[in-house]
């Protein structure tokens, strides 16, 4: 089922929670609504569900205008963060609930309900827990039951509000993969809310990045990461180090630090955003950059080592973070308190007078030079 959202806005009293926004969701698509707390994700999801009315605009499911339709008649499945299972009902009765309360004409027979519930429990691989009560389940199991319950009435639209928010990282990851598999197998359209960028990038066909009640960018995960169209998106999609530079003699300067402009870069003052893995690290400055930093923390994180660094004799508002593969880290034997120099390979430059960034790449320049040689 496709979903068309046109010019939806919402006020709570004088506060504008959503500015007029539009969004076109394809049938069978999985859309992640990503943004910081208070950006309006849940409000938008609740408006799609029919749990909240919009001030303006309209919503269409397929060719059905559902703008003024009651939540009951929109036929969407919901899953919330806090499981919301009925405590006094068994797992099987929880899953059967949506079917058992259907109007008599639409309600399947008791045998049919029983079969459907067993099928759903098989699908979420928890058929052996049918007669347990929610208090006898783990968090991950509860959430899978909540999903089975939401799918019982075979909705064409599934809405999920931080569905895995309360679970630990490992269970979260497993459930994510499992949900994506289920989504692809059953072919429903899903919209989920998250403030976890990794979750949004891993699960979604397209990510909708929200801030302050409006949409900043809508894109496929790869495109969003490769071409953020604003500072906000760049910042929000993680681990950017910002170098504020004043241009002089083809270099950006910040007190004692400097970076040579790559070929083709405009001679403008601005901010260079560099992702944590886009650096060379050395014990001396290079011809391209003189960016001295002091190591203040060393944290091994999975396949990489994250160094936290503070500038020496130049200014940055935030601690810098640089991710190195273990091999590169071991080769250099960096220690806390040590001074090191970083050289950017690529970055996004936001001139002070520009909204859109320019992608800069010193690496391709190097490749070109090598080719010429
Ligand atoms: N019923 C309400 N009455 C008044 N203000 C509300 C109401 N619901 C939401 N808001 C406000 O609207 C804004 C958007 O809230 P919303 O819950 O949509 O944000 P969110 O992006 O989902 O945030 P979070 O990630 O914290 O859940 C917030 O500032 C919130 O305080």
TrEMBL record:
<dbReference type="InterPro" id="IPR027417">
    <property type="entry name" value="P-loop_NTPase"/>
</dbReference>
<feature type="domain" description="ABC transporter">
    <location>
        <begin position="3"/>
        <end position="237"/>
    </location>
</feature>
<protein>
    <submittedName>
        <fullName>Sulfate transport system ATP-binding protein</fullName>
    </submittedName>
</protein>
<keyword id="KW-0067">ATP-binding</keyword>
<dbReference type="InterPro" id="IPR005666">
    <property type="entry name" value="Sulph_transpt1"/>
</dbReference>
<dbReference type="GO" id="GO:0005524">
    <property type="term" value="F:ATP binding"/>
</dbReference>
<keyword id="KW-1003">Cell membrane</keyword>
<dbReference type="InterPro" id="IPR003439">
    <property type="entry name" value="ABC_transporter-like_ATP-bd"/>
</dbReference>
<dbReference type="GO" id="GO:0015419">
    <property type="term" value="F:ABC-type sulfate transporter activity"/>
</dbReference>
<keyword id="KW-0472">Membrane</keyword>
<dbReference type="InterPro" id="IPR050093">
    <property type="entry name" value="ABC_SmlMolc_Importer"/>
</dbReference>
<keyword id="KW-0547">Nucleotide-binding</keyword>
<keyword id="KW-1278">Translocase</keyword>
<dbReference type="Pfam" id="PF12857">
    <property type="entry name" value="TOBE_3"/>
</dbReference>
<keyword id="KW-0813">Transport</keyword>
<dbReference type="InterPro" id="IPR008995">
    <property type="entry name" value="Mo/tungstate-bd_C_term_dom"/>
</dbReference>
<keyword id="KW-0764">Sulfate transport</keyword>
<dbReference type="InterPro" id="IPR003593">
    <property type="entry name" value="AAA+_ATPase"/>
</dbReference>
<dbReference type="GO" id="GO:0016887">
    <property type="term" value="F:ATP hydrolysis activity"/>
</dbReference>
<dbReference type="InterPro" id="IPR024765">
    <property type="entry name" value="TOBE-like"/>
</dbReference>
<dbReference type="InterPro" id="IPR017871">
    <property type="entry name" value="ABC_transporter-like_CS"/>
</dbReference>
<dbReference type="Pfam" id="PF00005">
    <property type="entry name" value="ABC_tran"/>
</dbReference>
<dbReference type="GO" id="GO:0043190">
    <property type="term" value="C:ATP-binding cassette (ABC) transporter complex"/>
</dbReference>
